[in-house]
Amino acid sequence: MGDVLPLVKGTLDVLVLKALAWTPLHGFEITTWLEARSGGAIGVQDSAMYQALHRLEARGYVVGEWGVTANNQRARYYRLTKAGQAHLAAETAQWVRYAETVTGILTSAPGPA
Amino acid sequence: MRSPDIRPGVRRLFRLALQRPERAGAEMDDEIRLHLALRTEQLIRQGLSPAAARAEAERRFGSLDEARHRLHDSASRREHRMRTLERLDGLRHDLRIALRRIRRAPGFTAFAVLITGLGVAATTAVFSVMSPLMLRPLPFPEPERLVWIASSSGGGLSAVTSRTSNLRDYRERARSFQALTGYYAFFEYESYNLVGAGAPERLVGVGVAQDFLDVLGVRPLLGRNFVREEGVWGGRPAVILTHGFWVRRFGGDPAIVGRSITLNNVPTEVVGVLPPSFDFASTFVPASRVDFLRPFPISDETDRWGNTLAIVGRLKPGATVESAQAELDAINAQLQAADPARWGLSAVVTGLQDHIAGRFRPAMLVLAAAAVLVLAVACANLSNLLLARGQQRAQEMAVRSALGASRRRLLGQLLVESLLLAAGGGVVGVLLAVGITRWVASTNAVSIPLLRSVSVDGGALAFTLAVTLLTGLVVGLVPALQVSRGDEAATLRDVGRSTSEGRRRTSVREVLVVWEVALACVLLVGGGLLLRSFVRVLDVDLGFQPAGAVAWQLNPGRDFADDTAQIAFYDALTARVAALPGVDAVGLTDTPPLGRNRAWSIQAKGAVYERNETPVAFPRLVDSRYLQTMRIPLLEGRYFTPDDDAGSRRVMILNQTAAERLFPGEEPIDRTVLIGDGEWQVVGVVGDVRHQSLEEGAGLEMYLPYSQQPDFNALVMVVRSRLPVETLAASVGAALRAADPSMPAADYQTLDAVVDRAISPRRFILIILGAFAGTALLLAALGIYAVLSYSVSQRRREIGIRMALGESAASVQRRVVRRTVLLAVVGVALGAVLSFAASRLLQSLLYGVGSTDAPTFVGTAAVLLLVSTLAGYLPARRASRVAPVHALRAE
Fold it and tell me: Considering only residues 88 to 107 of chain A, which have any Cβ-Cβ distance to chain B shorter than 8 Å?
């Protein structure tokens, strides 16, 4: 993992929500989903992701329930709530606007406005 | 592999989110274990050895112990937060349900809110009235260091006040005080005519030592305090206006400071205005009026006037009332030893707050106790109503309980409802209390100190909030425990069959009613005792006849050439007024009853008195018609005549008490009395007059012709007439203006009003306690009515059967009424015992009535029994009208 991006504060929560947007997942599934999507470019410790889950659950964005994996192992599955979906949509929109603005500024030709 | 898809709301309903912290931790461990296992598997699939894979998995997870610890923490935080949310959610739910129930029963709600409102209003208002007097410190900086120094603990202003030389010497010698100051306590003898800028007006000004405001720590709102040149004998005339007078007369114009106003023909500079927070009259002399402060010199000249000064001191830090008292005692002994002829050396130190509030403490405590009783009755009543309602919802509760709702949850819901009702009552109560306190603060007729600063303040609101919460809990608890008692099976079995209600519940309600009656009884006994005292006080033989007499404050705006001219002026004035149509009699005095007083030492000529045993009498300077005008009866000798003037032999009339004291068992007429060195011949003896207060017997009094002792500043003219006061006031006013255009003509008061002011604190307390007792009686009656009519409606079936079997309507009625009377009798008996114990508290407020006054107790019992029977009669009649067929068919 030579080229790892440091994570902007607060982004992990949104990424976890995004991971759950399609279907409920358990913790390790979320980790692998994030690794696959980022190509390993986002480096966080696995435990940090569980902390993010706790935060999200406390705020009512996700709900954790015990279920059974395909291999018959007991696992805690996290599911996005309505409030979580709304939060994800809002955060995504904001992130996109922010990124576009910053990108626009950084890539424009230097000179007086 | 899908988790069970249960919506969060449903989970909440089944209380799934509630986990214990240790369980949250164990689950977290499970999650970590699974994560590591899966990661290891993944890495092994990628080609690592099992051991290396495990190590890499742990590395990626983060330092295992620390991470585990962190995750446990965050998991338990999550649980905590979810639990809080869930509780809030539950509360919101309970609130919604309670609000819905409250909306559905507007009548009940209004009634409950009103009942609680009455209780809360009573307690809040009493708290607010007590607060400035007993709870709040006096409105001065470091008030606990302020003390009042009286000359002795006896009655009368002369006994409270000291000579100015005492103040001078204490200032020099006493080390316990940071400062000592005082005010001229006989200020009501003086009066000041303000002329110019509007109608002439008689003003009341208090002379204060130059540093008076500094010692109290009062800063003028505008301008400055008095300076040295103003505080000496014959100093530059200056006044500081009270805030109320400044606003009333000068419309709050700040430009008045530095200007000159004309008082008694003397141009006087207004040097300052007092802040609204310092109301001199309300603090030191309640129910009187003070328009300005003026400097009062502490000098040899004023010392000759005798005991005139009310002394106030500020203790040094560390000094106490006791240490100050000890020091002053020692100083007095030294001064006495140095000058054996000096008189008036005594000092009694009390805290200023004690001095001001002390004598009202018993009354305030009684009011507080009464307010608490009213609140208790209101609570019992509301509890009772909720119990009756609880009956109706017992079934609902049983169903919910059977479906798994916890008892705590059901109880909480019931409490939320009673708390809501109490909160409504709290709002109503505060509004009522604000109205009451506004009235109390605005009234000038009650001579209780600091009333004007009464308001519902932050402290009172906090108190109300506490009372309201407590009310809600207390009121809700009994019914809630009853309803959620359990035994769902029995309740459910009863569905659709109204059997006689459970014994237990009935008995709880009856116990509540008995207590209501008992507490109402205590309040009624208290009110009754006060009422009888009040009547006794009103029945007191005043010694004069107030009815039909009006008193004018006279203050001519002129200087007289000499005493003869002054007396001639007044004689002419009274003659003019006496000649008015409808005027029966006119008299003059310097000291009307129930107002100011001063005292002089006197002796029977030839008698020898022990030191400090010299009789002290209240002098009244009067004209030749005053005693007749007041209808003070002559017992011996003669009244004064116009011939008793400055040129003739000096004569005096004693009151009965003085005659008996000076000449025990002897004939007083024609005997000689010494006032100082002057000899006065006794020409008559008149009846005693209640001069200080209605409750106190007369002291020694002597009447002197004002022409022979013209030692007065202002006079009071008493006019006796059968004309209406307004008519009389118009014609007398015209006569006064004709005699002297600068004389204020509208400064009059009926003697009835004077008497009224004297009984005002008593009446104030009587009115409040009476209102409380009335409220309690009403609530108790409502309670009885509610319990009986409910039990009648519950027993329609039983009554129907009885009547079908031949019981007569009259007999049914009798049975219900008998129950009522039984409840009332038990309540009255309990109440009588309580009252007996409580009436001791009242002892100091009673006059002419024992605290175990039999007529009061019997009367109260009769009233309660009568009202209870009436309250029970309506349900009884309803019961007897039950038609058996309807009652049976109703099932």
Answer: none
